[in-house]
Amino acid sequence: MSIYDYLIVGSGLFGSVFAHEANNKGKRCLVIERRNHLGGNVYCQNRDDINIHFYGGHIFHTNAPDIWEYVNQFVVFNQYINSPIANYKGELYNLPFNMNTFHEMWGVITPREAKRKIAKQRALITHEPQNLEEQAIHLVGTDIYEKLIKGYTEKQWGRKCTELPAFIIKRLPVRYTYDNNYFNDRYQGVPIGGYNVLINHLLEGIDVRLNCDFNTNQEAWRDIADKVIYTGTIDEYFHYCLGELEYRGLRFETEKYNIDNYQGVAAVNYTDAETPYTRIIEHKHFEFGTQSVTYITKEYPVFWKRGDEAYYPINDEKNQNLYQQYLIKAKQEKNVIFGGRLGEYKYYDMDKVIQSALHLTEKELS
Ligand code: UDP
Predict the structure, then answer these.
(1) Any domain includes 344
(2) Residue finishing a domain among 122, 139, 169
(3) Is the CB–ligand 1 distance for residue 172 below 6 Å?
(4) Most distant CA pair in the chain, distance
């Protein structure tokens, strides 16, 4: 008999939720984490009483009452509503694309005027949009595409909008109301005290080891438990035997300022092509901080190579096909379950990750 029922590889949301549920059901769990801290990319580092979203800003939002209820068991969420600002060469626009944006762009005042303007510009696209550029023009016309989408997206993904899948831009709402809420979901907020509170509560009473890399010694780790829940990159698990999946990398540059307010909002997107970063996050605004200092982080999208942190899966046709081949191998792998953003190679929001971990628990443990 192994020492543990489950070895959970990775302490991000997927691994932590699964470990919590399994532990509640009396299963013996060990969570191992390659980094020197828990929480995967929701990890926050506290400096001067400000929670710095160490791997980029994370705003929790969901439409699912059960998921909202689930996370609220562990931490209290504040009333933060994401309303980022776009800065295009010094011109400021509200996001997501809504009547405020249309007014700022064209001076239009009524939804009717805005619709007319967009209808005229989208006339170019007469067929079902085939790529991100066509999808964006179809949604909001050429002016908004040129100023608020093209530069940002091409920096973010390191590819031409004509070579990117349309679904990426469908994440963003387009509204004909004066409503700057970035999300359509019913529930939204940031955990008071940061995401570490959520992760620490999920993992309370569970064995955890930091600085442990499963992939450098798979055989030994597998002996420790009856089953493995693997949340790392799926291609790495198989030693890249079918080739490498592609990801987009990120580099974060954090600066401290001895002022209380740097930009007046948590997120400013720099949507031109020349500014090398995509956005500046001012962390204190996620929690309505009143400290006398502030921390900002510039987010630079970078070329990803093996060994770097993998942030965004590139879900284009080529990579999806390769993932499907890895998936076949994954299904043949005995007593190993792959999950989460990296294990499933999926551009997942946090609530969907939790949902997927809870589905797995139901399947595995009921
Ligand atoms: N996007 C854009 N301009 C913006 C913000 C987003 O064109 O100012 C596009 C871009 O293609 C991006 C996508 O919308 O990849 C999704 O943006 P979101 O903010 O949802 O991405 P995330 O926060 O996951 O990086």
Answers:
(1) yes
(2) 169
(3) yes
(4) 71
Is the Cβ atom of 353 under 6 angstroms away from ligand 1? no
Residue 110 Cα to ligand 1 midpoint, Å, equals: 26
Nearest to 15 by CA among 35, 26, 31, 37: 31
Ligand 1: which residue has its CA nearest to atom 10?
153
Q: What is the pTM of this model?
A: 0.96
Note down pLDDT in tens along the chain; length 366 residues: 799 999 999 999 999 999 999 999 999 999 999 999 999 999 999 999 999 999 999 999 999 999 999 999 999 999 999 999 999 999 999 999 999 999 999 999 999 999 999 999 998 778 889 999 999 999 999 999 999 999 999 999 999 999 998 989 988 899 999 999 999 999 999 999 999 999 999 999 999 999 999 999 999 999 999 999 999 999 999 999 999 999 999 999 999 999 999 999 999 999 999 999 999 999 999 999 999 999 999 999 999 999 999 999 998 889 999 999 999 999 999 999 999 999 999 999 999 999 999 999 999 998
**How many domains, the chain?**
2
Residue-range definition of the domain harbouring residue 332: 4-78+186-245+313-365
Phi, psi of 356 (to 5 degrees): -65, -35
Note whether 74 and 11 are same-domain residues: yes
Report, as residue numbers or ranges, the catalytic residues: 171, 175, 248, 279, 299, 347, 349
Query: CA-to-CA distance for 332 and 157, rounded, in angstroms?
Result: 32
